Structure formats: structure tokens, C-alpha cells
Amino acid sequence: MRTPRRRYLTLMAALLLAPTVAPGLANANGPFVPPGQETVNRSSMLSAEQISAELRSLAARSKGALRVEEIGRSGQGRPLEVAYIGTGSTRVWIQGRIHGNEPYGAEASLDFLKTLVSGGKHARDVLKEISFAIIPLYNPDGSEAFRRQDSINNIDLNRDWGVDRRMFDQLNAVRVSLGQAPLPERNFTNYTRHRAVESQAFWYAWANFKPHHMIDLHHQGTYYVGDTDEMTTFSVGISLDPGMLTTDQWNTVRRMGVVAADAAGKSGVVNVTRYPYINIPEGVTSASMLNGPGPQGEYANWRSNAMFFESRGGIGQKSSGYIIKQNVNGLWAIIDAMSDRSLASVDADRWSNIPPRGAAITTCDKFPNQCDF
Ligand SMILES: [Zn+2]
User: Fold this and answer.
1) How far is the CA of 221 from the centre of ligand 1 (A)?
2) Interatomic CA distance for residues 213 and 206, integer angstroms
């Protein structure tokens, strides 16, 4: 039980220690922390500059194995960086923090990268099989402002990749098959999105690298596991209706989700769920799966197999350790299954057995130990 005195002390500690985020800002466009919990302790999160410095330091230690490339600049002029490592023929893209107020994708991808750079046998074996493009920080401006969107256009960068006529028609066909109204007609002559410079730079990096697989690291609000009293800490998700995907893609992305869920759930404190249905062709993982057009309407003629992780919100110093760890475990599980070629034999239908994400938890009272910022 949380006593009133403890609540007061916790509140005072939070006020004294934490740089505050304006109430409501952190909740813009989707739940991130439950209402009343908008004060987030950001001291446990790396800044854009620290992430950049860590990448450079890892590259220096790697004896040439890791190459950090600045592929462009953000709207406010911060470097957009991709870390390339590995010599294998399977190409994997990992990205974090496309939403600036969803921090630990950066820490998790750096932790993962650190092991790859370590030179151990496991890392060497994996790097012979797989080449990586790792982006710890997709949205540096939004991260510095601790907001979801970019800072120039004020748009969600995960709704800013190209959608063409074909993708739009496909989306409407799926909507009609589900009994939903089709979206209104629009002019798709040379239609592209990529309004933000970040979207443009990362689309070209994706088109050059042509990843077979992508994993995108996010945070969500705080939710129950299905209709239980448990809180979910980690969800795995797919950003498209299966009707938008080839059979092979649908099987592969579900297998990635299944092995990540198995691995993340093993740590004991992690409750894994399946993210609810969404169908967003303009998202990065989605457009990459659909051969979405580039900023000038050009095509990479490529389809990735992409899925995403969602860590719980209500983050703070006490929970940052296991939140980062569950992401790292999920990443390694997928990578190991690719590296030892076991992924193809995973039962994709086990995807449906992962418990669904339940209702939002809107109060700290139920889980006082978890409301730790
Ligand atoms: Zn997100």
C-alpha cells in the first residue's frame, strides 16, 4: 500500500529532481504516460549529443568494423546518423526514437550495438551472417524537445513516408473488405509525402541499404494484459493489415514478433502482449513493407519485413533498466533466429496466442511501485 506520506515524498522528489514537461505535451497524439503523470525524469535518458558521442566512441573502439555515417541533418540542424556494421548477406535495420518522447529505443539500440562491437564470439558469428543499419535516434529535434513530432513541421514522422495510388487503393480495398468506409478520393499524380527532411534522408538510406528486416522501437501508454489485473510492459506489433502484405511477409513479421515475445517474457518482470490492430501505410515500417515511393516519387523496388516493439510508459529511473533490457532481449532473439536460420521454422500462428493488450491503466494507485518518476 502506498501511504499518503510516501506519495507526498515521491511527489516532492519528482518536483525537485525532474525537468518538467508541460502537462498535456507528453500526451499529444496518443497516450504516453497516464494522466497526472506528465512529470518525467529525463535524467535517465541520453541527450542527442550523448547518443552521437556514444556512436563515435563505439566506432573508434571497433577497429573499423563500425562505420557511423551522417546521412543528413534534422530540421534544426542536428546530425542524422546511421551506424553500419557487419558483413553478412542478410540486412537488418533497427531504429529508435522516431517519436521524441519515447526514449529508450535509443538506449536499447546502443546497448545492442555495444555487444556487436565487443568482438566476442557471439558478435563475430552474427556479423558474418548479418549486416546492420542501426539508427538509435531518428528524431533528434523531437527528442531534445521531448515531443512526439519533429520540431519544424510539427508532424508525426511515423506518418510521413510516401503513399502512392497503388497503396491507397490497396488500403481502401482492405477497408471495404472489413466493412469500413473507403477513404475519400485524392489526387495521386506524383503524390509523395516525406514532408520532413528526416523522412527524406532516412528513405534514401533505406532505399540504398534495402533491409530484409526492420525493427522499430517505441513506447506506449500503460496498459493491462488483456482482461487480467497485470500490467503489460512490452508489446509486439505489426503496422499493416495482413491483406496489405504478401503471405511470406505476413509469416515473417509474425515469426519476428513471436521470438521477440518469447525472449522478452523470460526475464520474469516482463508481461508481453500483442499490440492492437492498425493499418497505416504512411508509417515507416509500413511503407518499407509496401515498396513505398521516395521523396521524388522514385522507387527502391524493395519490400522489407518490418515490425515494432512498444515498451510501457510511466517510465523513470527505477524501471529504465528492465525496459531497455526487454527491448535488447527481443532484438537479440530475432537476430539469433536469423543468424542460426531458425526463424523460418518458427510457427507464425503462435502470433495469435500472444495475449492482446488490454485497457489503459489511468492511475498509479494500482501499481504504486511502478509509478516511480
Ligand atoms: Zn511511437
Assistant:
1) 10
2) 11
